[in-house]
Amino acid sequence: MRFFRAFFGFIVASLVVSGPCAGEPELRRIHVWEMQEIVFRSAKTDINPYTDVIMWIELRGPDFSRRVHGFWDGGDVFKVRFVATKTGEWTWISASNQNDAGLDGRSGRLEAIPWTEEEKQANPNRRGFIRATANGHAFDHADGSPFFMLGDTWLAASTWRLPYKGEAAVPDYEPGPGVGFEQAVAYRKRQGFNSISFIAAFPNWETDHYSATFADKNGVFVRNAWEKFGFRTAEGDLASKDMHDEQGRRPFELLAGGEGVADFERLNPGYFQSLDRKMRHLAEQGFVPVFETVRRDNCPTWKAYFDFNESYARFVQYLIARYGAFNMIFSGIHLDWIPEKYSLTADEFNAALTHHHHKFGPPPFGQPYTTLIDSSTYPRFGHGDKCPWLTMHSVGNNPRHHGVYALIEELFRLDPPYPAVNMEPYYTGWDHSLNMPAGERPPADSERDNYFARAQMYGSVLSGALVGHVHGTAAYDVTAAGEPAGFRPYIWDALRYSSGEYMRHLAAFVLSEGRRYQNLLLATDDIAPRQAPGSPEKGLDGWSFMMRTAGQDLALLYFEKRAVRATLSGFQPSTSYQWTFYDPRRGDWMAPIEIDADTNGLLTAPQFPGDNDVATTDWAAKLKPR
After folding, report:
1. How many domains does the chain have?
2. How far apart are alpha carbons 89 and 84 in whole angstroms?
3. Is 494 part of a structural domain of the chain?
4. Which of 416, 297, 425 is nearest to 349 (CA)?
5. Backbone dihedral region of 413: left (phi > 0), alpha (psi from -120 to 50 degrees) or beta?
6. What pLDDT digit, counting tens, does each position of 519-568 carry?
7. How buried is residue 413: exposed, middle or buried, by Cβ count under 10 Å (0-12/13-18/19+)?
């Protein structure tokens, strides 16, 4: 039986397989990059389907031969999801480790046809999954078109806190109380966003009689959760935010006698069926999410009471099997902080993710694989063979000031190069010591607050994070109606912060010369002075940034507020250039200015708009031969 689910132009095809196949399978026509779902029904009932069964298909097609694993979806149902990555004929045959007549020996044939250019324009995910460019520094779609990521951070969007409502947003929707998942996505899409970052599951988090941060009777910390303001335990401690789905389901059952600890051997497929709807909706809207496994504080009990490497690898594989046919960036752990009590170490996570890599291999369709990190993935995990699962680097969370740019530049210089991004830069509206450049805490959504976010957008990209940028606000926890916001705003308020509007201007600036930004190289050292006298090392004022092509025929620059007029070196000698200022607040280009490089390739930057030698606000600029 074959049926199609069509919504906003994204299609999921499902084939139910229940009995033996007789003769040659029917040839089915599909689109390339169109997710296929094969449904199997197991003949066995005396096993734990989550822990005991490994099933897969051997998928063959043009320039492709891989094993694609399936996943348990409740009862006797197993599913395999896959895509055809090129046009032509594709075949598959199923197998398992169980000698199961319902899972083994099924087969199918498909013919993958291309999308038209009009269809691709309607949904860029039809251009294929994103991948590193040939030089390793940026992203393209599989068809070769560039992908510049504009992401937002909704870490709890997988849960009931941003509910899936099953209804399309009105075209002019403005965020307000009761905002749903579809409405929030539509609003950000209207602002130019094409990605969100969120965590798949929070297994140990619930608003119960335990506090937001607590250890069990054995002294093992169960969680270090975000507080649910206005709710307290009997002892007067702040309660944990509850992280179930819209039907009250949690990702795992609870361990008997485990004081709120998840039983990581008893997964609840119903929770992930709710998550399926959100992942499908993002795909339908052309989004490429950063999809994370769990937050680090869920893992001390996982390590204490289970075979962590094996059990965590099983969960990682479940997520890859279930969501690996979506265009996404996969994050193996949300490692925002590495405290001794509330997290495992980076080495312990690396060991588990490496174990998964050796047992199951990388995501079968080549999606980038990284982690959200405290500081930088390179010093935490290494590079290449030291972390074979990692194919994309990131920085984030700490520091949220000038100190992060040296970390990004370090990533850009690695050999072989990997794409890199800042996943947790300055968050508008967040009153936290991590989020105070030079000790400053401006009012939420003030000009200064939004300036800090804007400075990290341009500073991060022009330090080598050519993947794009991930925006954030203090509403990362997605505080919902019915509970006080505390010191984190409601999601509908944070969505309206001006910093979100600035992201589209960032993309317009970077993409103003098409895909040429992908060939930019670090050139900030050719700015003199790069740092204005007295500018704070731990602030976000007074610094200048530049990246430039190897042929010196294109440079993109950014000047923070209080940056000084500079001399630039390394340009084509005795060449006339056109300098064009760009306003990152409004997305406007100023009138071009002609300047000349001398016989040594030196040129003097023009005064900032307003005839100032010191920038009274931040400016971007583009420089290319006249």
Report:
1. 3
2. 9
3. yes
4. 297
5. alpha
6. 999 999 999 999 999 999 999 999 999 999 999 999 999 999 999 999 99
7. exposed
Average pLDDT over residues 54-70: 98
Helix 308-323 crosses helix 346-360 at what angle (to 10 degrees)? Answer: 60
Digit-coded pLDDT (tens) for 299-347: 999 999 999 999 999 999 999 999 999 999 999 999 999 999 999 999 9
pLDDT (mean) for 454-483: 96
533 burial (CB, 10 Å; 0-12 / 13-18 / 19+) is exposed
**pLDDT mean over 162-172:** 95
What's 156's DSSP letter?
A: T
Q: Are residues 339 and 456 in the same domain?
A: yes
* Euclidean distance between CA atoms 184 and 191, whole angstroms: 11
Do 502 and 554 lie in one domain? The reply is no
The single-letter code of the amino acid at 13 is: A
State residue 143's pLDDT score.
97
Cα dihedral value 377, 381, 382, 386, nearest 10: -140
Residue with tokens 């119903």: 270
- Burial label for 410, CB within 10 Å (0-12, 13-18, 19+), is middle
Residue 100 has φ and ψ, to the nearest 5°, of -105, 120
Q: Are residues 506 and 601 in the same domain?
A: no
Phi-psi sector, 158: left (phi>0), alpha (psi -120 to 50), beta: alpha
Q: Which of 321, 367, 292 is nearest to 67 (CA)?
A: 321
Shared domain for 156 and 222, answered yes or no, is yes
- Give the pLDDT mean for 139-161: 98
**Do 275 and 364 belong to one domain?**
yes
With a CB cutoff of 8 Å and minimum separation 6, the contacts of 411 are: 376, 377, 378, 393, 395, 418, 420, 464, 465
Residue 110 pairs in a beta bridge with 28, 90
- Omega before 416 cis (within 30°)? yes
Let me know: does 472 contact 153? Beta carbons within 8 Å.
yes
The answer to whether residue 1 scores a pLDDT higher than 60 is no
Decide: helix, strand or coil at residue 529: coil
| Strand ranges, E, within 225-305 | 227-232, 238-240, 252-254, 262-267, 290-292
Domain that holds residue 312: 144-511
Element of type H or E holding 511: none
Lowest average pLDDT, out of 19-23, 142-146, 417-421, 441-445, goes to 19-23
